[in-house]
Amino acid sequence: MNVSANVIAQMRALLERRKTGYSLEAPFYLSEEIFALDMQAIFREHWIQVAVEPEIPEPGDYVTVELGSDSILIVRDDDMQVRAFHNVCRHRGARLCNEEKGSVGNIVCPYHSWTYNLSGDLMFAEHMGEQFDRCKHSLKSVHVQNLAGLIFVCLADEPPADFDLMRAAMEPYMLPHDLASCKVAAQVDIVEKGNWKLVMENNRECYHCVANHPELTISLYEYGFGYQRSPANAEGMDAFERTCVERAQQWEQLNLPSLEIEKLLDVTGFRTQRLPLDRAGESQTLDAKVACKKLLGEFRSADLGGLSFWTQPNSWHHFMSDHIVSFSVIPLSAGETLVRTRWLVHKDAREGIDYEVANLTAVWNATNNQDRTLVEYSQRGAASSAYEPGPYSPFTEGLVEKFSAWYVGRIAAALARKRSIPLRVESGV
């Protein structure tokens, strides 16, 4: 890890005085040096969700993703396997695929036409002489995993070994929605002028939802993501809890698990839960009815609630009977973050007949723009001389604390490996 001694010393001090249950200190959100450490210790060392399988349905289809200075090429090979490579020619390092997505027969360098097959093997390199060994110049592979249609990559030499634990837990929840048999109906990229951790913290709580997300709270119960009980809301909370029990029993009969699994402090941290939806109870839309008439998988009923799936450090996803919304966060700098949202429907659904893109995307387009504003408020506030870490709500911000604790723990582990000196971190990780 190429991190200066000054940055290591600063980080050790920040980590050691981090207070459990409080937001992080300002340098975590503002410092470009700490951002560089984040990219090395978090985004190079962990499984990062970057794409969805329907983006590359046929052999030769590819997408590219930028993680810091690294460009990753994700491609479907001739055997229909998903592969990932560094998007760099083995000749003199030119970028191979310069578009965000496309389709190729072979991977051809635009500079000197070195040609690789879809398995990354160098097939053709003109004027290199008889002694040249093509086998020693294949593309450099990147670790890739396909979890029920969600594609993750890891740039580490040895990726975290616990991905299969997440797979075993999540496939029963996700596979009935058959993401692999979907298509991307819409994709929207926005750049939020805030640190990636503020983006993730904002996602991990709904304390702000009622006041800021009128479109989203049409279908989401306000009690579903943490709430402090009071005499004024006790009746509503009791009714919600009864609804959860009743619906869980119905879903279990359909082989749709719903119980919470919470592993957010694992190295490959994740959480899932299926919850009822409010109003019509079918989908996250402006009327809580399905946005797509063609249901996913083999579903025959539209009222299947919303399955949420969160991963550390950079994604969250909502699975419904009719469509899936997938969010991937890519840091750009200490103060800018790309939030990529994809809406997926059944591959046979017909735009204009089975669904309208405007209706499909309305709730989360509005919510994303509202969240962008809130994150940017937070980024500007963190730059103030008056900023100091504030307390998380024990009722509504528990998942924010778990994100912060996971982050602090993973950074501490990375620095301890570098210096071979244990770090004391109050987060308990």
From TrEMBL:
Pfam families on file: Rieske, Ring_hydroxyl_A
Lineage: Bacteria, Pseudomonadati, Pseudomonadota, Betaproteobacteria, Burkholderiales
PANTHER family the UniProt entry points to: CHOLINE MONOOXYGENASE, CHLOROPLASTIC
Coiled coil: none
Annotated CDD domains: RHO_alpha_C_GbcA-like, Rieske_RO_Alpha_N
Cofactor: Fe cation
Family under the similarity heading: Belongs to the bacterial ring-hydroxylating dioxygenase alpha subunit family.
Name of this chain's protein: Rieske 2Fe-2S family protein
Rieske domain: residues covered: 47-153
GO MF annotation terms: 2 iron, 2 sulfur cluster binding; iron ion binding; oxidoreductase activity
Top-level taxon in the UniProt lineage: Bacteria
Annotated organism of origin: Paraburkholderia eburnea
Keywords, ordered alphabetically: 2Fe-2S, Iron, Iron-sulfur, Metal-binding, Oxidoreductase
PROSITE patterns, per database record: RIESKE (PS51296)
